[in-house]
């Protein structure tokens, strides 16, 4: 009998990890299921025991994932390029000295137990960052920034903690849509365009907010990036390429730092180089500006005027 979690994906018993995650790219058209990203990735999740099911169930709920449309019988092949990410829940938590490597289309790694809200949030963050890293290897980037949308145009509001990302996101009026206010995954489509997906804020889970959810599969084309600042008046101003790269790099390192704990220095340097190269390509393709935001002004009007002149 195949295994199933909560009406979700079914996998065979042959995988060694307690949690198995299937990544499918260029999937043939089916009903919506799992996590689809604009870079062509398709992630499916499954678990093998109660500890794994807890992590996968929380991950699926936080990412707003729908149930897969089909069970996979034992040994059934998936169409398209397939990657299997297997997570083993161990008794003790250990830092990753290196990122899990892929062998014959399979990636295996270990995560620690999730007995407390803090440990659950940490394991969810690690698993989600593995997903994000797969997109980074294809030109994407996980950044500390809020994602909003105006008439089909995606806007990233990037700033340090306390810059006002959450407050700005809450102030946006209709027809603006606020997708997330803290972390965003930028991906590069097979056609070379940059899109963005909302990403969970796992610190909310550590505070016990287990009902928090984000529609991660709902991507939008990224039209502009704004480096936000608190100010007395609302205005958009130009920024140098060097400053744009430096600030976005800092926003990326902010969210990547927890996974880097305990990693070998050579691995950290390689990951930073990858992100730096991706950021250089990003700022070459997507306009970056400084956005001054006042306490009571209609700053979104400045964004709308700026979007109106972007080709």
Task: Please give a structural write-up.
The structure is a single chain. It contains seven helices and 16 strands. The protein has 311 residues and is an alpha+beta fold. A six-stranded mixed sheet has the order 4-5-3-6-8-7. The protein has a five-stranded mixed beta barrel with strand order 9-10-14-13-12, surrounded by four helices. Strand 12 (183-188) and strand 13 (194-199) form a beta hairpin. The radius of gyration is 20 Å and the shape is globular. The protein starts with a strand and ends with a helix.
Brief characterization of the structure:
The chain has 311 residues and is an alpha+beta fold.
If you compute it from the alpha carbons, what radius of gyration comes out, rounded to the nearest whole angstrom? Answer: 20 Å
* CATH-defined fold name of the largest domain: Rossmann fold
What proportion strand? Answer: 25-35%
Alpha-carbon distance between the two ends:
55 Å
Largest sheet: 6 strands, mixed
- Extended strand count: 16
Note the total helix count: 7
Describe the global form. globular
Percent of residues in helices: 25-40%
């Amino acid at each position: 009998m195949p295994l199933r979690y909560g009406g979700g994906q079914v996998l065979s018993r042959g995988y060694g990890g307690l949690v198995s995650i299937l990544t499918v790219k260029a999937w043939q058209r089916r009903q919506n299921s799992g996590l689809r990203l604009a870079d062509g990735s398709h992630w499916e999740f499954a678990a093998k025991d109660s500890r794994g099911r807890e992590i996968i169930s929380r991950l699926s709920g936080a990412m707003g994932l729908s149930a897969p449309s089909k069970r996979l019988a034992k040994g059934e092949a998936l169409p398209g390029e397939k990657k299997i990410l297997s997570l083993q829940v161990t008794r003790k938590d250990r830092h990753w000295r290196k990122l899990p490597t892929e062998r014959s289309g399979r990636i295996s790694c270990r995560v620690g137990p999730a007995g407390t809200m803090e440990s659950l949030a940490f394991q969810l963050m690690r698993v989600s960052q593995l997903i994000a890293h797969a997109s980074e290897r294809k030109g994407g980037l996980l950044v500390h920034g809020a994602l909003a949308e105006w008439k089909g145009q995606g806007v990233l509001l990037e700033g340090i903690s306390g810059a006002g990302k959450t407050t700005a996101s809450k102030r946006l009026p209709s027809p603006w849509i606020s997708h997330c206010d803290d972390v965003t995954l930028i991906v590069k489509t097979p056609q070379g365009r940059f899109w963005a997906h909302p990403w969970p804020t796992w610190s909310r889970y550590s505070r016990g907010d287990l009902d928090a959810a984000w529609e991660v599969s709902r991507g939008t084309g990224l039209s502009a990036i704004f480096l936000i600042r608190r100010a007395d008046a609302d205005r958009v101003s130009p920024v140098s390429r060097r400053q744009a790269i430096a600030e976005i790099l800092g926003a990326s390192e902010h969210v990547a730092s927890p996974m880097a704990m305990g990693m070998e220095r050579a691995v950290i340097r390689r990951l930073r180089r990858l992100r730096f190269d991706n950021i250089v390509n990003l700022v070459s393709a997507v306009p970056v500006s400084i956005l001054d935001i006042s306490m009571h002004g209609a700053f979104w009007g400045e964004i709308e005027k700026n979007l109106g002149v972007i080709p």
